[in-house]
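Before a colleague's protein record goes any further, I have to sign it off. My question to you is simply how this chain folds and whether the tokens agree. I do not need a full report, just your reasoning and any doubts. This is what I was given:
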Amino acid sequence: MLNIPSQSFPAARSQQRVAASGQSGRNKVALKPGHSLMDWIRFSKSGKDLTGLRGRLIEVTKEELQRHNTRNDCWTCIRGMVYNVSPYMDYHPGGEEELMKAAGIDGTDLFDQVHRWVNYESMLKECLVGRMATTAMKAIVPSSPQSSLAPPLSMAAPTEKDSRPRYDWFQTDATVNLVVYAKRKIPSSGCTTVDLEAGVLRLEVVLGNMSYMIHLRLADDVEGNVAVHNALLVGKIQVSIRKQTKGKWSSLGLPLELHNTFLRKKDRALHYRDCVLVSKTEVNHNTHVFRLQLPRGTVMHVPVGKHVYLKALTQGTEVVRPYTPVDQSLVAAPLPSSQEADLYLMIKVYPDGVFTSHLSSLHVGDCLPVSGPEGTFSLRPLRDVTDLYLLAAGTGFTPMARLIQLALQDVDTIRKTKLLFLNRREEDILWRRELDELAARSDRFQVDYVLSDPTDSWTGRTGRVDESMLQDFLTRPDGSKCYVCVCGPAAFTELTVGLLKQQGFSEDELHAFQG
């Protein structure tokens, strides 16, 4: 009997990332009527045999997999599990051509390049053929169990000997304190996420493209609050927790799964915590800002340009979507410290959207699973930039909101930040009043609006992004260093990135957020 894993998300090796600089993400095709995501969920639950095996699960050899490589008989392998994706062809947003690239082969790498947030295990569970047959290998048994203070396990060779982080702990009668030594400088914010729930401590420190994790069941009961203190230049992170009962502990606790490991960030499975919906604030006719409160035992900051994943269960299928936080306002005063940890997500609700319809139905006080920060965006390229150009379409504005504030408040070298904001109609423009107010306040910021379906009274730019529009908007003053960020629907992003490259912008001078 096959040992088929439970349908969980994400898989341990999944890569939940936005596109790297210059990459535009996947292309979508027009689906036939009756072939939406919700239609696929209904079809897959209809009881029809989608594998052709009448419910049997089999072991699949490489040779057998290779034989199923046609449009009407298409098997593919993702992380060791084989699926018959032929029934899904007409429902795939990327079209038949994209699926056929993985026909008859291991499609894991292709999947990770394009469908990073898709919960394939839940979506294709009725198409599961079985497991790939494997060649037996001699097990490697460690000579002794790893202690709680042993050197961390690493799946990637360190660049220097003994460059892996380590940790230690100390205590007083009232507190227990865990200290991580990163052995390098650490970012001022966003590198450390701490979750304390029911006596289990999970701490993740992101260092570049690597992730160090502590995962323990604490030795005794503690209060629910966590305090985190960073010494940036020496690379030290201290987590302090108050004991429920004063006294001495004989140990910090028991190691749990993946405790004291140092892995590539892309190999670290997502971790979700339940956040509470505090409020929904209307932005325009179809967009709201959802304010989410982190649990009491969570310390998490989402850096500028990073996103989080939200997860929901729809008709028995897990659906996951990425959203980039914004601040509460572009022009408001800083929030009180008690509210700094709240997440503000600006989300457009689509009437027929599987996920956003669920979000719209939530009431204040409901919970929503939220991942930690994800994404490839880095502030490092902005260090010497003098002119920052932001090209946004629709809700592609969301990563730009915090970038604008960063450029105006924290990066003195940026002399000018210009936003080209494309929408269909005037009522679709997000935070227009605040953008106009910001532009009036600061001569370092400029916003230009473009409408593709304007009314007769509109006097601004019209049309869609094209070469002449970008030539007019983008300038390279003498002695300047320019950087361009792009975000919007996949087709917009791909077209815009291509036009930018035609105008001489290199990969190092642009970043494309995946919409």
